[in-house]
UniProtKB/TrEMBL annotation:
Pfam families: Cob_adeno_trans. Its EC number is 2.5.1.17. It comes from Paenibacillus kribbensis. It comes from the Bacteria. This is Corrinoid adenosyltransferase. InterPro entries: CblAdoTrfase-like, CblAdoTrfase-like_sf, PduO-typ. It catalyses: 2 cob(II)yrinate a,c diamide + reduced [electron-transfer flavoprotein] + 2 ATP = 2 adenosylcob(III)yrinate a,c-diamide + 2 triphosphate + oxidized [electron-transfer flavoprotein] + 3 H(+); 2 cob(II)alamin + reduced [electron-transfer flavoprotein] + 2 ATP = 2 adenosylcob(III)alamin + 2 triphosphate + oxidized [electron-transfer flavoprotein] + 3 H(+). Residues 3-167 form the Cobalamin adenosyltransferase-like domain.
Amino acid sequence: MGIYTRTGDEGQTSVIGGRVSKDDDRVEAYGTIDELNSFVGQAISFAEGEKFADIRTQLEEIQQELFDCGSDLAFVKINESKYKVKDELAERLEGWIDACQEENPKVERFIIPGGSTLSSTLHVCRTVCRRAERRAVTLGKHTDINPAVRRYLNRLSDYFFVVARTANVRQGVPDVEYVRSKKVFRK
C-alpha cells in the first residue's frame, strides 16, 4: 500500500462517514490531539530509567487513548455504540493525579513551565492538551460529540501539570515559580 493517495490534494480529507475540508473544526480537533500524541511520545523518550517506569507506562496508555479520542471525534454522524472513550478513563486519570500529588510539594504560586527536560516536555503536552480541549469544545458547539472526550482532555491537562511537577521532584529539580505572583493557592 502506498502512503500517498492524492485524495486530499484539493483540500478535503476523509472522516468516518464522509469527507470534509481539511480546516473543518472536526479535523482541527482530532489533528490537535494527534499533535499532542506526538509530544507525549517525545515525553516518553525522556522518561528513562526505573524512577519513571510508572509514568512511562501511563504515558504509553495515554497515547492509545488519544487515538481513541481522535477516532471518536472523527464521526460525522453520532454513533455512541462505537465510541471508545468512556468516563472511566477520566476517573482513572484522577487516581494517577492523586498519587503524583502525594510526591509533590504544595504549590503556592503559579508554576512557569521548566525544570528538567521531561518536565518541560510534559508542560508542552499540557498546553497542547488544553488547545485540543478548546478545539473539541468548538466542535461540540455545532455538532454532537462524545462528551467523554472533552472530560478526558480536561482531566488529562491536569494530569500533565501534576506529573510535570513529579518529574522535577524525582530528578531533584525545583519547579520554577512565577515570582511576581502573590500566593494564589491555599490549603
